[in-house]
Structures are given as structure tokens and as C-alpha cells.
Specification:
mainly beta, 5-stranded antiparallel β-sheet, 8% helix, globular
Length: 128
Amino acid sequence: MPLAALGLLAAAAPVAAQPVANPVATLAGLDKITGRVTRFDVYIDETVLFGALEITPRACYNRPPTETQRTSAFLEVDQRSLTGTSRRIFTGWMFADSPALNAVDHAVYDVWLIECKTSTEVPPPDQR
């Protein structure tokens, strides 16, 4: 195959846009006892308490508006005991468009990703 033809093939291949990193993850949590759903914003690397769960997002990505949307976040979730010790119950990627794909497996609480954002009305942890 001539070299020029190879160049045309490479030019015709679709180019995927790089994911956009965001500083804020919007999550939702369900307390299965009360049936209450709570929506909350969390900064990347900040740990928040939802019931007995300590939730820490480590990354939150979405794609540019011109691409097919795929919003994902890497989370660490620990369960806090009554004695104050914590045990990791989830580490992994969550996807906003497929909340059941990688779910937090807990008897009382469900947590899922809603979106990734560039800003929030919640003050950053260092300003509280």
C-alpha cells in the first residue's frame, strides 16, 4: 500500500476527545430506612459523611459537549462503625448514565453519581 494511502486512512479514523476533569462531583444518596434521597456536591479529594458512609471522590470526568456524554467518577467509600473505625466497602469507577453498573453494595445506603461540575455553591473545604 502506498504511503499516501496510509496517510488517508489515518486521517479518516475518528479522534476521540479527551475527558474533561472537573473539581466537583454531584452525588445522590438513598437512605433505604427513611426512603429519603439526598443530593450533594463534593470536591475532589474531600471526604463527606453520608449516614455511616465516608465518601471521597478522587476524579470526576465528562466529555466535551460535542461528544457523546459519558460522565464518570472514581470514588472511595468507607463504612464507619460505631467504634469510629472505617472499613473500605467500595473503590472504583461510577458512571452517571449507568448507576447500577458499579454500585455501592450496602444494606442501608445507596450512592450514585449524578454529574461532574466546574463549580458549586458549597464553599471549598479550606474556606469552611
